[in-house]
């Protein structure tokens, strides 16, 4: 997936939450020539998150390093699209399966240095997809999972409850 494909994906967002940020991300991707998938680029990487509702709550995972509740997410690996990443990460982290997948947001996340992984501080351009939960039997989750209501989440995630 080339940067032009990522820009095209951004253009598919029907109701942008932050138009100025979206424009900034488009420009950043247009001017970036290095590989962004995987972890080969120390400054900027592509990630993808899954927004999945159960009734009026969204699934969150407890991030093992940041120790905070975040959307299930991970790095877009070589040979993978952001949609595939979000779906894979949701399954790995929660043990649950999803279907569908519609791009709803793109965000820049500041990632602090992680000396354990020998990673410096960097940014993620995070593509966020809305999925539907399936009826399949749950598998073992990799991380602690929690359903959170609009009142429980930080401001960053509140707009997703209006979609």
Could you please describe the fold and organization of this structure?
21% of the residues lie in helices and 32% in strands. It has 163 residues and is α+β, with helices and mostly antiparallel strands. Strands 1, 2, 3, 4, 5, 6 and 7 form a seven-stranded mixed beta sheet that branches. β2 (57-62) and β3 form a beta hairpin. α1 packs antiparallel against α2 (19-30).
Average the pLDDT over all residues and give the rounded result: 91
Counting helices, strands and paired strands, the structural category is alpha+beta
What's the count of strands? 7
SS summary, helix count: 3
CATH topology tier name: Nucleoside Triphosphate Pyrophosphohydrolase
Q: Which range best describes the helical content: under 10%, 10-25%, 25-40%, 40-55%, 55-70% or over 70%?
A: 10-25%
Strand proportion, as a percent range, falls in 25-35%
User: How far apart lie the N and C ends?
Assistant: 27 Å
Which CATH C-level class is it? Answer: Alpha Beta
| Fourth-level CATH superfamily | Nucleoside Triphosphate Pyrophosphohydrolase
Describe the main β-sheet briefly. 7 strands, mixed
């Amino acid at each position: 997936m080339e940067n032009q494909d990522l820009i095209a994906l951004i253009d598919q967002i029907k109701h942008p939450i932050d138009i100025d940020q979206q424009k900034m991300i488009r420009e950043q991707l247009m001017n970036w020539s290095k590989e962004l998938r995987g972890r080969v680029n120390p400054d900027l990487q592509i990630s993808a998150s899954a927004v999945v509702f159960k009734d009026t709550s969204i699934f969150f995972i407890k991030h093992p390093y940041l120790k905070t509740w975040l959307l299930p997410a991970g790095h877009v690996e070589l040979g993978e699209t952001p949609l595939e990443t979000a779906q894979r990460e949701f399954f790995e982290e929660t043990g649950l399966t999803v279907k569908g997948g519609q791009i709803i947001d793109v965000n820049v996340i500041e990632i602090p240095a992680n000396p354990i992984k020998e990673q410096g501080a960097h940014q993620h351009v995070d593509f966020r997809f809305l999925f539907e939960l399936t009826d399949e039997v749950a598998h073992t989750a990799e991380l602690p999972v929690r359903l959170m209501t609009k009142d429980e989440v930080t401001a960053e995630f509140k707009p997703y409850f209006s979609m």
